[in-house]
């Protein structure tokens, strides 16, 4: 490849990489202020391609998990959805109205590195949720392709190939650009729900026409389970396996910036957006609850239990089975096409969620390269992971459901816990007890799911391990960057710099930020003049850096000046001492037009331990690290600020 071709490829891949990328919603980018967004019901369709598409496979998974008790287990799931997940995410919409979701709520609770590491773990579970959504949905779409009677015979058994083609097509769409997501989502959701309504209405008519079917189901269920208490107990035990029927809530709050809200909304108080997002969440939950209950009853009563097993005609496609069986092959094929389309687009919704979350956190932590702020490189990374997951699970829907449910439940548990803490801080005792109970139920559901299907937590652990290792490797690699988004001098600092610059290059003595006496400042200046040969009579400035949170990677620097203890001082807070000093030196150079000189003392001790202190605490051996940061930031030695060590 020629150098020109490489430049064009790089420019295409990194198109749109800006600081704003850290706040975008992936391809569903936040509209500029002059744009009004979309009505809440249209945005509901965007999140609904993930949520509603689970009807394609949820009834079959429920039948496999609960057998004849599937409707009862689904009732438990609906109760948890309406009385647990819905109140939690209505609270998340209020507490985090700009698309950050529950992860941002929890990030604010934990300080320093503990908060960063906790967020990385949650990102691992979020990646599990969204990536498995892509692969599971594509795998189920391939099952609908293969089982369709009009599909070519050469597609028989080619589920993996079809799934990979669908994933590649999804990636190609995002690489080209994904601008009309909501319009497409509205059409797909409208058609899909209408066809499901026809299938379920037909099923209800069949059941009412032949009430003996209900009697047969009830007799078989009561023969299998001796008492109603046993039935309820079994349903409570197996319903965690149905947890993927609650997916979509996290996506619902992630797309909040797309909701129009009121004309009077402000960034600080988007009351209309919060109200309409709550409408979105409530409407979606009620619709899905009705469809889940009806589909569970219809498939359990009308489909023989053996047909749900792996390799059976209803495995992963129970409603499609009913469509073909009772409405004919033409309607069944139309249903298949609609299901394939919405399942494929559910992957698009999940990928959009990933492209929203990753640029928000990892680059800001310094735990990802700057190219992760761009959409296209991330799309290639996520598509490669999706291909690997598909090959690992052999495009098996049932095998992936455990990992999917694990990711969904962890995010819901984190949202419930964050909501509990939020209402507790506001002194709402009753709400605290309610959200605390919901948190306990989600914790039970998660633990049960992990015990029953440990493969889910294993997959999540791999995602977490990958994210943590690559994140910290990136942090170490980027530790020697300037790490400042801007340097501002207050009025006094600017005056002091200009006064010193009038006598030649600005000379800076790096000093500890603790309070000092006049004698200490004089001793420090005298030793530096003697050891590093600062010219006699030339004025100096003391620069003192306070590290408030070394786990932060970038920040805006405000340099404050004062004259105390008969010394001119510049004081600034930053994430790391060497990086902050280097940024201030470069800004002084740009302000005065002269290359400044900085003077340091050597630090006693092991250089390896000092390097580790720098990486963790932001200080350590300051002089050589400052010089290295300057070397990387300014390649021209003639313009690079000078570092002197005595």
UniProtKB/TrEMBL annotation:
Keyword tags: Membrane, Transmembrane, Transmembrane helix
TM stretches of this protein: 61-86, 117-139, 159-175, 182-208, 228-249, 280-303, 341-362, 374-395, 401-423, 430-451, 457-474
Top-level taxon in the UniProt lineage: Bacteria
Protein name per the record: Amino acid transporter
Organism: Streptomyces formicae
